[in-house]
Design brief:
By secondary structure, the protein is α+β, with helices and mostly antiparallel strands. Helix content is about 20%, strand content about 45%. Helix 2 runs antiparallel to helix 3.
């Protein structure tokens, strides 16, 4: 009998130790501790990623128009030059001698014509004789113009403002038409050509912003605008070439460079929630909205329609409005209508994992 009484006492004490003490836990045993985030608005857009190539806005290979030796060079590799600046001179000594002779040949008929004009007005000399000298003047002036054009062909000038490439000839070298003396490029801004699938043609138009990146400049973003779309679609790849202009004040971008681009379209301001606040149930997405009720705070499960994504965030098409608060941490076991204790705010999405970083 004593043993039964002792056993009953032990069981009673054990039950007392296991009994929950509602007063020891603030808010009662059913209060769930959570962290929350405020619904904000963010800019969302559809993007098209593509590869493209940088090209100079204007580009030319400077060469001679005649076969002649190089007399002088007036530039260095990489110089920035202005339109009309003299870059190279070819030997023109023969042409200058011919010009001097042509001007001398012009002097005699010009003097005779000046003398005869007064006599023709007085009727002392026939006008036919004056016309003969004027014809000689016209022929001499035409000859001078031809020689001056030949001399101009031996002066290589910059056709527009730009940046020179490497010098490819030396003084004394014999050059012929087509032999490249140097290159000249306009590098600010630059053209950026890339291809997109034909299915996106309906969403493309001049003025759309282009965001491009280059492996040569990690972490740097180059922004430009679409200026044109090719009139033809490649029948093999079913893609179209798009051209954009990108500012290049620092001349970091060079013709021939490979860049990746993101073409933004369908921009809109929409409510945004952290992705970790989303709870998936079959094909439906839910969030738990924090609401006040009976002097406390409770969770209300709200269905939402999700649209586009940003790193760590999702666009809410319907179901939420900016300013509402949603649960981001403490979702495990959370039920609709459960009492909540907010212990902190959402601090931001986790950093992306980069192996070896």
């Amino acid at each position: 009998m004593r043993s039964l009484t002792l056993l009953a006492t032990i069981l009673a004490l054990s039950a007392c130790k296991r009994a929950p003490d509602a007063s020891s836990k603030p808010g009662g045993p059913d209060v769930q501790k959570v962290k929350v985030a405020t619904v904000t608005t963010a800019e969302f857009s559809d993007t098209v990623e593509a590869l493209g190539t940088v090209q100079a806005l204007e580009s030319i290979d400077l060469s001679a128009n005649v076969t002649e030796t190089v007399k002088a060079l007036h530039f260095e590799d990489g110089d920035r030059v202005k339109k009309g600046q003299l870059l190279a001179e070819l030997n023109d000594s023969e042409e200058k001698a011919m010009l001097a002779a042509a001007r001398a040949q012009l002097a005699e008929p010009a003097r005779e014509a000046d003398r005869l004009r007064g006599l023709v007005e007085g009727g002392a000399v026939s006008e036919v004789r004056l016309q003969g000298y004027e014809t000689q003047i016209d022929i001499a002036e035409q000859k001078i113009a031809e020689i001056e054009a030949q001399i101009a062909d031996r002066r290589i000038e910059a056709p527009f403002d730009g940046v020179l490439g490497f010098r490819k000839v030396s003084v004394g070298a014999l050059v012929a038409p087509g032999d490249v003396i140097t290159t000249l490029d306009v590098l600010h801004p630059v053209k950026f050509d890339f291809t997109v699938p034909e299915t996106f043609l309906g969403d493309l138009e001049p003025g759309l912003e282009v965001v491009a990146r280059s492996g040569a400049w990690p972490g740097e973003v180059f922004r430009g605008q679409v200026t044109g779309i090719d009139s033809r679609v490649d029948p093999v790849t079913r893609s179209a070439t798009v051209r954009a202009e990108v500012p290049n004040e620092g001349l970091k971008l060079r013709p021939g460079m490979l860049m990746t681009t993101e073409l933004a379209k369908n921009r809109s301001e929409s409510p945004s929630v952290p992705e970790r606040a989303l709870v998936a149930l079959q094909r439906q997405q839910f969030v738990y909205v924090v609401e006040a009720a009976d002097g406390g705070t409770v969770a209300r499960r709200v269905p939402v329609e999700i649209g586009r994504r940003l790193p760590g965030f999702a666009e809410v098409v319907s179901g939420l409005e900016a300013g509402q608060r949603v649960v981001t941490d403490g979702l495990l076991g959370l039920r609709d209508g459960a009492a909540l204790e907010v212990i902190g705010e959402f601090e931001g999405p986790a950093e992306p994992y980069t192996p070896g970083g």
